[in-house]
Amino acid sequence: MMLQSVDLDRAFHALADPTRRGMVDRLAQGPASVKELAAPLSMALPSVMKHLRVLEAGGIVLSEKAGRVRTYHIEPAALAGIEEWVSRRKAAWNRQFDRLEAYLTEETEDPQQEPEK
Amino acid sequence: MMLQSVDLDRAFHALADPTRRGMVDRLAQGPASVKELAAPLSMALPSVMKHLRVLEAGGIVLSEKAGRVRTYHIEPAALAGIEEWVSRRKAAWNRQFDRLEAYLTEETEDPQQEPEK
């Protein structure tokens, strides 16, 4: 999935906080209710809800309400989008680095190419 | 490389901005000076410097100064750290999803397990 720039802004922002990354850790183990997500945190419920809204705005999690219980789960496409964005830049940098290394090796192995001293 | 929580905060925050992601795009093609990084941007130099400081604080880029020219380049270990963090959560979620699917298939295939109507 290709994420638009504004989505990437929100997705990266959503993960730039240890509480929210902890929620993603929990949700990676399976769906959970607000109550279950709040249980390990020493944090007021409105703060928990606020973090969940940031994760939802970033596309990292989705929620659905059944009766009075809202259940959250991971949106794997958003994680895949982030992974792909990072992976492409890393790959481009590595290619660039390999080319530089190959060039330097060539220069060293061929004395005729060396500048006169 | 395992990034600490505080480093991940800064690394994700650094990438939560389109200008900074554009700088990473440029640097993935090879090292660049502040002047080169500023060239395509309609932005005052102090703003460019501020973005670069955020990228550097997030460990995404490194810089070195030779004479009066400061050159920036990608720190691939930080990108690898982010990629790994995201990839692990995605993998955990997928395992969980596969288990659920296997369970549901089993339930459907074995009529004795079905609840009475």
TrEMBL record, chains A, B:
<protein>
    <submittedName>
        <fullName>Metalloregulator ArsR/SmtB family transcription factor</fullName>
    </submittedName>
</protein>
<dbReference type="InterPro" id="IPR001845">
    <property type="entry name" value="HTH_ArsR_DNA-bd_dom"/>
</dbReference>
<dbReference type="Pfam" id="PF12840">
    <property type="entry name" value="HTH_20"/>
</dbReference>
<feature type="domain" description="HTH arsR-type">
    <location>
        <begin position="1"/>
        <end position="94"/>
    </location>
</feature>
<dbReference type="InterPro" id="IPR036390">
    <property type="entry name" value="WH_DNA-bd_sf"/>
</dbReference>
<dbReference type="InterPro" id="IPR036388">
    <property type="entry name" value="WH-like_DNA-bd_sf"/>
</dbReference>
<dbReference type="InterPro" id="IPR011991">
    <property type="entry name" value="ArsR-like_HTH"/>
</dbReference>
